[in-house]
User: What shape does this take?
Amino acid sequence: MSDQGSEQGAEPAHASGVAHPSGAAHVSEAAHPSEAGAAPGAAARRDLAVRAAVEQGLLDPASPLVGLLDVTGVRASAAALRAAFEEVTPPGTPVLHAFAVKASPLVPVLRLLRDAGIGAEVASPGELALARAAGVPPAHTVLDSPAKTPAELREALALGIAVNADNPQELARIDAMTRSAPTHSPIGLRVNPQIGGGSIGALSTATATSKFGVALRDEGAREWVVRACLDRPWLTRLHTHSGSQGMPLDLMVRGVAATYELAEEINGRAGRQQIDTIDIGGGLPVNFGSDEESPTHAQYARRLKSRVPGLLDGRYGLVTEFGRSLLAKHGTILARVEYAKTAGARPIAVTHAGVQVATRTVYDPASWPLRIAAYDAKGLPKSGPAVAQDIAGPACFAGDLLAENRPLPLLEQGDHAAVLDTGAYYFAHHYAYNSLARPGIYGFVAAGSDPAGPAGPVVFATVREPQTPEEIVAESGGGQRDALRDL
Ligand SMILES: *Cc1c(COP(=O)(O)O)cnc(C)c1O
Assistant: This one.
């Protein structure tokens, strides 16, 4: 239970009142000159990147909002994920880590992960196209979605991509397709162990009435699944994904354990290892309250090893589908403060980051609190007494606030607000309210090691260009200007 406190449900909303989250890292790095040659930590890398983004003009009055992605951090998380499962499985156990593309649907990011040995979990024709554009091989791709069309299924089966069927009707479609065109695709069935929800209802997929998978505890359902497998020798996988963010580790482990037990029952009745692979989904929660990464993939893997040892003894191949836990902590949204004002004695920083890049936080701030760090006009960490202030976005509705009454050094016009831990489900998940432009996204590698000295050589690469007003017009029917007149 040691990592219990770091789970989302245990964090009070808007808990992070620290003046500058990375301040501690500054002090400790500066205080240990013997470590000056050591690679900077995540917080120090972020500070270097913010300063360099301002100095190099990525962010200027005309483009006052960017997304920054810490490539060093992404590589480290990918390596740590692979190591975590290598540690708990015998050598040679097939393990595919398929990144949930919905967490960061950006081709260069999928390519970076592919180079780090990570595949792709896709859930729509668009996500499959992104994974293919990134060069993720079919053998490292898994298709899950509750609403796959016949065309999607046919494409996946033709490519040899692993498919997890969601329900009996989908399985019947696959029956018909595999009869007429044999496939190399491994086929699985998604089950819902109905173990209950986490702290965020909208993201809990293993509730009694969840729309996902075959609800195992429903009358007759378990026997139906066993028979469905026995009737189909090619049905070789079971899949479960109990939820995203807000799921306690123990609940996730229980969902996986229930799926493993079902696989054992099927294999026992088949008299052979028919189910050879279990897809345990993703859903490892992310700590949005500090720079600490907890729980870690290694903690989750070890807990699975102690609670479901048979799953990891080498008899089963594994698929994982982590998204948020691989990317969240490596992204920062950086926005200029356009104006600073007060209303009813409350200071308000009006920035360019709001509902368009932090949709969940703006609409459901209690479930999705984000840390904010204050930087000055030059991109240096801002110090000074903490003043409770609102950090507002640019959209035209009153609730467009990233944080309310947040104690931070007072943000002034021309300063910068950094929204932390936004590498998954934030800056790549644009919401086109007010036709606000999609910001540019830049990956960075920070080579400098002394944040107190001159800015280190930070190198940026464009992941996605900022959207232009011309593109907004074109995507908004600009080419069909007279379409309605001519009706
Ligand atoms: C969303 C999703 C994931 C990834 O969830 P994270 O919380 O980002 O790890 C994995 N598998 C399925 C089926 C999903 O729907």
About this structure: The chain has 13 helices and 18 strands. The pocket of pyridoxal-5'-phosphate is lined by residues 100, 102-103, 121, 144, 241, 244-245, 281-284, 321-325 (CB under 6 Å).
